Amino acid sequence: MFKRAFWLTTGAGFGFGMSLWVQRTVKRTAARYAPQRVTNGVTRTVKGITGDVRAAVQEGRDAMREREAALRGANGSNGAGTPPE
Question: Using alpha carbons only, how large is the chain's radius of gyration in Å?
Fold first, then answer.
């Protein structure tokens, strides 16, 4: 009975210690590869970061639409799948 309790406690302690070690390693690695703007603005609120992400997505969509319009203009299609008359 004491053998089982010993190995259960040993395994639980090892598992707990490894989970802390892995968590610390992942956080350090993520901090190392994070952009400088994100790491410097740790005190920024989630709302501010969300606004930055939304702005970046909107900028990407605008650029996509501009590129698509340029390609459609060069191709001569009107966007409906048929060539212009």
Answer: 27
